[in-house]
Amino acid sequence: MTEFNDRVIAEFRANRGRVGAWGTDLVLIHHRGVRTGTSRVNPAMSLRDGDGWLVVGSAMGAPRDPAWTVNLRAHPDTEIEAVIDGGIATVPVRAVELAGREREAAFARFVEMAPAFAAYQAKAPRLLPVIRFVRRGPGG
């Protein structure tokens, strides 16, 4: 998956956030490894949510949550790269995992936009996490 992600990240940055069939619906999630402390970047499809963004940790229905979700639980203050006003902006955010009805409503929005998310949830032996990125002010 790393080689694929590297190509998506390069295309995102080279084309002002526009990537193939995703258009401008991707964000690049910056996160730090829980055990290693290594800085990483992962692309994820997103939905705007007011002044924030929603993403799903689907890993295409894999048995375990993607590493970036685990890292965000440990280090929720981070940054994303997102398309804003036709260009890429780096935005300081806090990752908040949704639960209950709020999670269900957000996940339904993803299924409506991309029905593959329903198939990922059906395949996964876990509840796919939905993360909201909320803007942080300067300094945290």
What would a concise description of this structure say?
The protein is of the alpha+beta class and 140 residues long. It has helices at residues 2-14, 67-74, 100-113, 116-123; strands spanning 26-32, 39-49, 52-56, 77-84, 87-97, 130-135. The protein has 4 helices and 6 strands.
Question: How would you describe what is shown here?
Answer:
With 140 residues, this protein is α+β, with helices and mostly antiparallel strands. Helices cover 31% and strands 34% of the residues. The protein is built from four helices and six strands, in the order H-E-E-E-H-E-E-H-H-E. The protein has helices at residues 2-14, 67-74, 100-113, 116-123, and strands at 26-32, 39-49, 52-56, 77-84, 87-97, 130-135. The protein has a six-stranded antiparallel β-barrel. The termini are far apart. The model has no long low-confidence stretch (mean pLDDT 95).
Topology (elements, then pairings):
Blueprint: H1 2-14, E1 26-32, E2 39-49, E3 52-56, H2 67-74, E4 77-84, E5 87-97, H3 100-113, H4 116-123, E6 130-135
Which runs of at least 5 residues are low in confidence (pLDDT < 50)?
A: none
The rounded distance between the terminal residues' Cα atoms is: 31 Å
Structural class: alpha+beta
* DSSP strand tally: 6
Oligomer: single chain
- Tell me, rounded to a whole number, the average pLDDT: 95
| Strand adjacency order, main sheet | 1-2-3-6-5-4
What's the Cα radius of gyration? 14 Å
Helix content: 25-40%
User: What is the percentage of strand-forming residues?
Assistant: 25-35%
Work out the helix count. 4
Biggest beta sheet attributes: 6 strands, antiparallel, barrel
Globally, the shape reads: globular
- Output the helix-strand order: HEEEHEEHHE
